[in-house]
Every structure is written in structure tokens, then in C-alpha cells.
């Protein structure tokens, strides 16, 4: 009986040792869990950064409602670019001889259009309101394919105006256009495109299929003379 117990003890010792060897050498557990933890941390950090960016820039977005001479209603967004009342938007949102209303931080100030660039679909408006919130412009040379971006604009509904956010990536890039993989309604034309830091990349044009393409900050800077 003593011999049998000894044999069992030896088998147990070797079995335990083999298990430890396999778990530590052949299949180390630490390599399995680390990537999952890192992915979770990165996701949380990106979501927090997005929320912080939206909170920082939301008051710079201007809602625009236009009644054309043909009786058509056009809605869209623009962006305050100086704190003394300069607003840039798409020229198509504020066509000539239209009747416009600009909603700036809850107010509807008087306005006048300073200039247009029909070729690049841009218009510059001066609203009679001061202390506007503004945003930083991105260094265009730092924009990269696959970069995470989001749009922020204002849509009009029966119950009032609502902020709208959508996110995606830069899918194609040139000096004339920034294409994204974002799909949106045309009501968000003129919305602004930002990186995760809340820096402006451009103003969005939305085609009939809902594809979002931005007029880049290089074009906007040239239009503003900055």
C-alpha cells in the first residue's frame, strides 16, 4: 500500500509540474488578456475625447434657414470663424435674393452677406452679434487617410432645432476635397467636419446619395484671407 501511495505522489508531482510548465512556457496566459484590455482602454479614451470635443465646439455651429424667392425652404449649418460675428457657410444654403435667418447661440441677429465664392461654394456672412465661440483650424498637412473624424451640425424639425453628430473616417484626400465614409441627410449640408481634437477640417457638402465630402480648411482659409 505504501508503494502505491508513493507512486500516486510521484505521478501527482510530475503532473502538477507539467501543468505549470505548459501554462507558463507553452501557453502563457498574460499574452491572451493584454490586447483585450488595451483595446477597451483605447475605445474608452476615444469616446471620451469625442464627447469633450463636441462640448468644446458646439456653440460655434450656426443654424441657417432660407426661404427662396420661388418659395422653397433650404436649411443647413454654418460656422462662426471670428468672435465678432463672421460666419462661413455653403453658398448654396444662402442663394442670392433669399430671405435668411441665422440662429447663433439661441439668438437671431441681423446679418449681411460680405462675399461669395461660387466656384468653391462658399459664402461669408457678418452677423450683428459679438462674443461668438470659435474653433481652431487643423494643419492640413497633418490630415491622414483613415483618420477618425466627425461632423456636427443643426437640423430643423417640427419641435425645433436639434444638434446632430455623425462620425467616420477620411476615405479619400486631396487639396480640393476631403471625402469621408459618412452617410447623412442633406439637411446637414454646411455642417462642419472635425478631427477628434475638435479642430476644423472643412465644411460638408452632401450629395444626393448622402455621401459626405468636405471643402477643406485650405480653401476656407484662402476665402477668409487667413
Give a description of the structure.
With 226 residues, this protein is of the alpha+beta class. It has a domain at 135-224: Trypsin-like serine proteases (Thrombin, subunit H, Beta Barrel). Helices cover 27% and strands 38% of the residues. The chain contains three helices and twelve strands. The chain has helices at 2-26, 30-57, 217-224; strands spanning 61-67, 73-80, 86-90, 99-103, 111-117, 122-127, 148-157, 160-173, 178-183, 192-195, 200-206, 211-216. A six-stranded antiparallel beta sheet has the order 4-1-2-3-6-5, covered by helices on one side. A six-stranded antiparallel barrel has the order 7-8-9-12-11-10. A hairpin with a 4-residue loop joins strand 10 and strand 11. The chain is globular and about 50 Å long. The termini are far apart. Residues 2-14 and 19-27 have low confidence and may be disordered.
